[in-house]
Design brief:
One of its GO terms (biological process) is glomerular filtration. Involved in vesicular recycling, probably as a RAB11B GTPase-activating protein. Pfam families: GRAM, RabGAP-TBC. One of its GO terms (molecular function) is GTPase activator activity. Keywords: Calcium, Cytoplasm, GTPase activation, Metal-binding, Repeat. Helices cover 52% and strands 14% of the residues. By secondary structure, the chain is an alpha+beta fold. The strands form 6 sheets. Strands 17-18-19-13-14-15-16-20 form an 8-stranded antiparallel sheet. A 7-stranded antiparallel sheet has the order 9-8-7-6-12-11-10. Helix 22 packs across helix 31 and helix 40 packs antiparallel against helix 41. The longest helix is centred in the C-terminal third of the chain and has 31 residues. It is globular and about 110 Å long.
């Protein structure tokens, strides 16, 4: 590797280098302790220095220096890990530089020329691979160490590296932590003790920051059942965030690829950089905080002040700019934030250079003034260009005219609210789509009704109208603490749908996709899938007590929304609990709005909830358990096993408490959820457990605890609900009232915010990432245990051996996915499939793994034996082999009897059966499986001459390298000759008349020729005999031509009987295989096999 020229003063340096070659201008040196004469005390000291010092020129065992004549100053220009690499650099210098240097007069010119040439080479190399790195020169040095120490495939992308200590027991090992796309690596070398760790991200169970008496701050990694602790980081938080992102990236790409496909920024594993990960994390946090669509990315951040009219002062915060949104958040985030879609901006007033201020005018007669913006002119021009507003002088005169036209349009919309859809360019809604919320149809408000509940409802509406007048209404409304206070007190029935749309961000999705829902409804109309069948089954189970869903109006709207979403997102399709949630959305929002609210919930607010494995809900349950440990220690002391709360709270998270609370109370919870996200559900869950603390502590079993919680939920009421009894759910019984009393939902929510409102969203998201690793790995472990349980019934491997085999098999599956997103194996991975089908290997991956595990030494990944084994065990001929098929093949080759092993090799050379079978053949196959008819040796077809020739070649290859190799070869040659003579005798007996004299010599000579052919195979190498053509040698062709008149063949019984007479062959196949050693060797060599390909 060429290095940026750096001065080295050899006179005062330690004598750590030995000169290998030199000339007038260059010198090639070898590091002491490396190569010939290495080791000893010098090697230990030099190795320790090389690990600790951060300089590749001091680490690489070879280097080239440029010498300045008559000077003690040398310049390091190249280094190398191997002798071959450094000699290539030396030869290049001899051929391209040495002749040119003779024309220079001064040593300064020579040095300047050499340095310029080396820098040019480095720049050329850096154009492709290192252009995105912050410090390409240092990164090249780290990359050299990474490749030298870990010998990973060249495709593996190093992301970043840090100096740290790894705690091996109670002893710290100082070294370097390397974080690459697929691996966490650590290397340390201190006084002869080498520590090398290579941990795939997809095998990590836990990743967290910890501290104790010995380690004040450290990073804890749990993998393979072992704990790894890393400490003494210069930037621990930065390191942990990058590790967290890489682990999450690996989980999404390999285990949860459905969600990952929506993140094109990280789609190519070869282009992942530290800078890219940081930008992606910031964009993710930005979208989550402001509830923006997934397509938005954080482009610019500007610190500034925003004039807040309702408080009459400037508030410090940050402007966050994306492709289509201008957002502002105060410094603490909770005090104030506002979202301004670019489509709502009507003008940018001329920036004020005095206060570095700019004013953004939006629809609705509102303007926002940002001051003390450092780069205010550029920000102003950026917003103008994104909004399509011209800043040229010729248009300034008409600004008043444009503003007047905009104002008249706004006034029109205010006077005619039914035309508001035209403002976002919506198409006319289909007549089949309902344009009213179901609550307004089935429970219209009675204006003349002045009972106390309706009066309180009017007071709530008045409070919100006052809030709108102060803080704005619509997409650019200010979100403040007062907004949350109003939410906690309850949202008026008339405003619920509108506010849900704003708080969830669904209003932006609907505005940017006009007519999308109507098109989906038309396209999905009449489709029949598994999802639509499940939807039809659950339609009448959705709020069956509510009048809206006792009529065709509500049922049809629910069907259209759920079917349209299943059509939009077939990877989720339809999952249980979606019907209950959508029912409530349809009560308060129009049909199209309910659809976009469902999109916001399923794809942004509750990610990975509504899929077959409900990973998101399981992750949030783990977060809930952590919060219980922190906030309810008394409950934890009594109930040490918190898995009970996970099982009982699953419906709370999946349905947002709708399935356990009366509908009039549950909608208040949904109000809080759309404003605060999952944090609101976690807070309420803690408040419920806290409220029932004493009763839960006195419980004797889980059933009693479930009864207590169910009675509590039945007792929750909404005393302010204006809904009539026909809409409300059944009132609580007198027994429940006596035991619990009535609990008002508003009071319960207020208590949840008072006691647990300090829980920060950032902490919840961090806990989500931490627990997601554990949840995914727990599900994977369950899959592994189920697979092993099924496979163990058909093989003789022990459970620990099957466990190791499964790890090797799964890792081989992922090795084909590590460096590409288009791997056919990755495309076939589907967590929803049966356990055995989740991980499968194609031929290339199978060949590599089989070459590591097969009981004979000759097999290579590309050998024909691997192909034939793969073809034999791939029964359905889909080009993939599952774990059971793989283990059954290995079990036969490892522990099978001589007869079974020979039968396996015999069947390999038979032509493959049919792949896709018709219905009748499938039913027959199914019937045979039920009857469990065992295949006997008489059922095997006969093997023809070309197949038999290849069969003997396979035996020769298997025997290659064995101590008894020559005896085995001669035994096979003898058996071959014997079988041919038996075939001749059998053919003569079947002939009706005696053969002519002229034919006898030919038949007699054929056996001799075949025997000669077999003898020649003894002298052949496995490589020459491993050709895929069945007749590679001229002798075998001559033998076949001698018998050209009639095809000859052998039965398995004949082959078996002949080989049983050869003790050396029987002994070879019955020799026991050290399975433990084979598995250990395969585990070490698996990555290196990929690297050496």
């Amino acid at each position: 590797m060429w290095l940026k020229p750096e001065e080295i003063l050899l006179k005062n340096a330690f004598q750590l280098w030995l000169t290998e070659k030199d000339n007038e201008y260059f010198i090639l040196q070898r590091r002491r302790g490396y190569g010939e004469g290495g080791g000893g005390l010098t090697g230990l000291l030099v190795g320790t220095l090389d690990t600790v010092l951060d300089n590749t020129s001091k680490v690489a065992p070879y280097r080239i220096l440029h010498r300045t004549p008559d000077s003690q100053i040398y310049w390091s220009i190249a280094c190398g890990v191997t002798k071959e690499e450094i000699f290539q650099h030396w030869d290049w210098l001899q051929q391209n530089i040495m002749k040119t240097l003779s024309v220079f007069d001064s040593s300064e010119d020579i040095t300047s020329f050499v340095q310029g040439k080396i820098r040019g080479l480095i720049a050329e190399e850096s154009k492709t691979s290192l252009v995105l790195e912050d410090d390409p020169e240092k990164f090249r040095e780290a990359l050299l160490r990474f490749e030298k120490w870990f010998e990973l495939p060249s495709e593996e992308k190093l992301v970043t590296y840090y100096s740290c200590s790894y705690w091996k027991g109670k002893v710290p090992c100082q070294g370097w932590l390397y974080l690459s796309t697929n691996f966490l690596c650590f290397y340390s070398y201190l006084l002869g003790s080498e520590v090398k760790l290579v941990i795939p991200w997809d095998e990590i169970w836990r990743l967290e920051k910890t501290s104790n008496v010995i380690l004040t701050e450290s990073i804890h990694v749990l993998a393979h059942g072992e704990d790894f602790y890393f400490s003494m980081f210069l930037h621990l938080n930065e390191t942990f965030v990058i590790m967290e992102q890489l682990a999450d990236y690996s989980i999404k790409r390999l285990f949860d690829k459905e969600a990952f496909q929506r993140e094109p920024a990280l789609s190519d594993p070869l282009q992942i950089t530290k800078r890219g990960l940081e930008a992606h994390a910031k964009s993710d946090q930005f979208r989550g905080f402001f509830r923006l669509p997934k397509e938005e990315n954080l482009l610019e951040v500007h610190e500034c002040f925003l004039w807040v009219p309702f408080s009459h002062y400037n508030i410090l915060g940050k402007i966050c700019l994306s492709e289509n949104y201008l957002c502002f958040a105060s410094q603490d985030g909770s005090q104030c934030h506002v979202i301004i879609p670019m489509r709502e901006v009507v003008n940018i007033e001329k920036p004020d250079s005095t206060n570095k201020a700019l004013t953004v005018c939006v629809r609705g007669k509102r303007a926002l003034r940002f001051s003390e913006v450092r780069d205010y002119m550029r920000l102003s021009n950026t917003i103008r260009s994104r909004c399509g507003i011209s800043a040229s002088p010729q248009h300034s005169a008409s600004s008043e005219t444009i503003r007047g036209e905009c104002q008249s349009l706004i006034n029109h919309f205010e006077d005619n609210p039914e035309d508001v859809t035209l403002m976002v360019g919506q198409k006319d809604s289909s007549k089949a789509v309902s344009t009213e919320a179901l609550m307004t149809v089935f429970h219209p408000q009675d204006v003349e009704n002045l009972d106390p509940k309706m009066l309180k409802e009017k007071m709530k509406e008045q409070s919100w109208n006052i809030h709108f007048s102060e803080y704005g209404r619509g997409t650019s409304m200010f979100f403040t603490r007062k907004t949350r206070d109003l939410i906690v007190r309850g949202v008026p029935e008339a405003l619920r749908g509108e506010l849900w749309m704003f708080f969830s961000g669904a209003v932006n999705d609907m505005a940017t996709h006009p007519g999308y829902y109507t098109e989906l409804v038309e396209q999905s109309l009449g489709t029949s899938t598994l999802a639509t069948d499940e939807i039809e089954r659950d339609l009448h189970r959705s709020l069956p007590e509510h009048p809206a869903f006792q009529s065709d109006t509500g049922i049809s709207a629910l069907r259209r929304v759920l079917t349209a979403y299943a059509y939009r997102n077939p990877k989720i399709g339809y999952c249980q609990a979606m019907n209950i949630l959508t029912s409530v959305l349809l009560l308060y929002a129009k049909e199209e709005e309910a659809f976009w609210l469902l999109v916001a919930v399923c794809e942004r607010m509750l990610p990975d909830y509504f899929n077959r494995r409900i990973i998101g809900a399981l992750v949030d349950q783990a977060v809930f358990e952590d919060l219980i440990r922190e906030n309810l220690p008394q409950l934890v002391e009594h109930m040490t096993d918190l898995t009970f709360f996970s099982s009982v709270s699953l419906s709370w998270f999946l349905t947002l408490f709708i399935s356990v609370l009366p509908i009039e109370s549950a909608v208040n919870v949904v109000d809080c959820f759309f404003y605060d996200g999952i944090k609101a559900i976690l807070q309420l869950g803690l408040a419920v457990l806290d409220y029932n603390m004493e009763a839960l502590i006195c419980c004797n079993d889980d059933a009693e605890a479930v009864t207590i919680l169910n009675k509590f939920f039945d007792s929750v009421t909404n005393k302010d609900s204006p809904l009539p009894p026909t809409v409300q759910q059944a009132p609580v019984s007198n027994n429940v009232k006596a035991s619990h009393g009535c609990v008002d939902i508003s009071e319960l929510i207020r208590e949840a915010y008072e006691k647990y409102g300090s829980i920060r969203t950032e902490e919840v998201e961090s806990s989500r990432k931490r627990n997601k690793l554990y949840v995914i790995q727990t599900l994977e472990d369950t899959t592994k245990q189920n697979v092993i349980r099924v496979v163990s019934q058909d093989v003789r491997f022990t459970s620990p051996q099957l466990d190791e085999l499964y790890i090797l098999f799964k890792r081989q599956h992922f090795l084909s996915c590590y460096w590409t997103m288009k791997s056919p194996v990755l495309l076939h991975h589907d967590p929803s499939l049966a356990y055995l089908e989740q991980y499968q290997l194609g031929f290339q991956q199978f060949g590599i793994l089989f070459s590591l595990l097969e009981p004979w030494a000759f097999c290579s990944p590309k050998s024909t034996l691997s192909l034939w084994v793969f073809r034999l065990i791939d029964e359905n001929q889909d080009g993939l082999v599952n774990f059971k098929e793989f283990c059954c093949a290995l079990d036969t080759l490892y522990t099978g009897s001589f007869t079974n092993k020979l039968k396996f090799l015999f069947k390999m050379h038979l032509p493959p059966g049919r792949g896709k079978v018709d219905l009748q053949a499938y039913l027959k196959q199914w019937q045979n499986e039920i009857l469990k008819k065992e295949e006997t040796i008489k059922d095997l077809p006969r093997i023809n001459q070309s197949q038999f020739v290849q069969f003997t070649k396979t035996l020769y290859n298997i025997f290659h390298g064995d101590p008894e190799e020559e005896r085995l070869y001669r035994a096979v040659a003898h058996v071959t000759s014997l079988l041919l003579r038996m075939e001749e005798v059998g053919r003569r007996l079947q002939e009706p008349s005696s053969p002519s004299d002229s034919k006898k010599p030919a038949n007699a000579s054929s056996a001799a020729v075949m025997e000669e052919s077999s003898s020649e195979e003894v002298c052949k190498t496995p490589e020459s005999a491993d050709a895929p053509t069945p007749r590679s040698s001229s002798s075998s062709q001559d033998a076949a031509s001698d018998l050209s008149e009639t095809e000859w063949s052998f039965s398995f019984e004949q082959v078996l009987a002949s080989l049983l007479n050869e003790p050396v062959v029987v002994g070879f196949f019955e020799k026991p295989v050290d399975i433990h050693m084979k598995l250990g060797q395969a585990k070490v060599a698996q990555l290196k096999t990929k690297a050496n390909k």
